Amino acid sequence: MEWQAIMIDVFQRPANATHSFDVKGVIGKQFNYACLCSTHQLTIRRHNKILKGAQYKCRKCNGELVEEKLAI
């Protein structure tokens, strides 16, 4: 592959396709959704898909996941 040759020949670095960055602190916002049997934490990507009309179901009870709204 061309990028591997560049890494080795130009940068004198191993041509790894993975990274070694510390990603422990990179935790995205979670959204609480409930079904008939429990509460689930969804990522912002799934939350946004639901806002656009996607539907997700619980694997245990087959109930539709509905966002839990905070009572103020």
Distance between the termini: 56 Å
Q: What's the mean pLDDT score?
A: 88
Rg over CA atoms: 21 Å
**Largest sheet, order of strands side by side?**
2-1-3
Give the total of beta strands. Answer: 3
Helix content: 10-25%
Which structural class matches the secondary elements? alpha+beta
Low-pLDDT regions: none
Summarize the biggest pleated sheet: 3 strands, antiparallel
SSE string: HEEHE
Strand content: 15-25%
Give the quaternary arrangement of the chains: single chain
Question: How many helices does DSSP assign?
Answer: 2
What's the overall geometry?
Answer: elongated
Describe the structure.
The chain has helices spanning 2-9, 44-51; strands at 30-34, 39-43, 66-67. Helices cover 22% and strands 17% of the residues. The model has no long low-confidence stretch (mean pLDDT 88). Strands 2-1-3 form a three-stranded antiparallel beta sheet. The protein has a domain at 28-72. The N and C termini lie far apart (56 Å).
